[in-house]
Amino acid sequence: MKSPKQLTLEKKIVKMLSGKALTAAEIMINDEEIQYLQDYANTVSIKRLQYNDHGPVHMRKVVFNSLMLTALLNQAGIKFNIEKEEIGTFEDTKIAVLIASFLHDIGMTIGRENHEQMGAMLAIRIIERLLNNLYRENKKKKVILRSIITEGIIGHMGTQKIHSLEAGTILVADGCDMEQGRARIPMMIGTESKAGDIHKYSSSAVKSVKIDKGGKRPVRITVNMTESVGFFQVEEVLLSKINSSPIKSYIELYAGVIGEKIKCYL
C-alpha cells in the first residue's frame, strides 16, 4: 500500500510533466515490479541496516528534485547532452532523467556496498522494457538513452566519474534529499549507537532543502537546519556530490542554522 507521502509526491511529479514524459512517469508510478523493488530497498536499508530512507518516497523525491533542476537549467538556455549531441529533444532528456531517478536506488535491495552498480544491473531489463514502450520506432535513440540512464544510476553516489549533464543532475538531486523525514523511521527504531549514525542525526537536523532560480547562476540550493550537525550532510554529502557533478558550474549553494547567518559554499 502506498503511503500518503508517496502519493503526494506522485501528484507533484505528474503536474510537472506532459506528453511522452508524462506517459513515462505514469507507467513507472503504476509498475508493480518497480514498486516491489523500491519497497524492498527500504526493508534492507531501514529494517536490516538501520540506515536512511532509500525506498519509494526517497526515489520520488529525487525524481522531483531532478525535474526541478532540469527545468531551471533549461530555462537558463543550457542544453543537456541529449540535445547538444543531437540525439533528441529536451523531452528525451526529461525521460532519461526521470527513469534513472526512479530506479537509482533499487540496488539497495542487495545491500549498501556498490549499490549503484547493483542497481544498474537490476535496472537494465526494466529500462529496456520502458524504452521499448516509449520509443518503439527509434532503435538508435533507445540504445543511447539506455546508456545515459545507466550512467545516471551508476553515477548517483559520485564514486564513478560521470560526463553527461543528465547524470550530473541525478547526482545533485540525490544529494538534495536530506531533510528530517528521511531519517525519521531509522531514528525511531534505532537502539544502540553504531558507525554511520552521523547520517541519521545530521539528516534529522536539516529542516528544508530548497531548489530555486539562482542569482548569478541558474540554480540556487538553500539548506536550512535546526542544528549545526546538519553541516555534515551539506559538506560531506551534498557538496561532495555537487563537486563531482558536471552541473557544478551552474549551482549556487547556501546553508545555515535557522536564525543565524547563512553560509555561501558556491
Strand-residue fraction? 5-15%
Question: What letter string, H or E per element, gives the SSE order?
Answer: HHHHHHHHHHHEEHEE
Number of strands: 4
Provide mean pLDDT, rounded. Answer: 92
Number of helices: 12
| Oligomerization | single chain
Helical content band: 55-70%
What class, by secondary structure content? alpha+beta
Fill in the keyword field for this structure:
4 strands; alpha+beta; 58% helix; four-stranded mixed beta sheet
Would you write up a description of this structure?
The chain has 12 helices and 4 strands. The protein is an alpha+beta fold and 266 residues long. It starts with a helix and ends with a strand. The longest helix is centred in the first third of the chain and has 20 residues, at 56-75. The chain has one domain (4-264). Strand 3 and strand 4 form a beta hairpin. It has a 4-stranded mixed β-sheet with strand order 1-2-3-4. Helices cover 58% and strands 9% of the residues. The chain has helices spanning 4-15, 19-29, 32-48, 56-75, 81-84, 90-103, 115-134, 139-154, 165-176, 184-189, 197-204, 231-243, and strands spanning 206-213, 219-225, 251-257, 263-264.
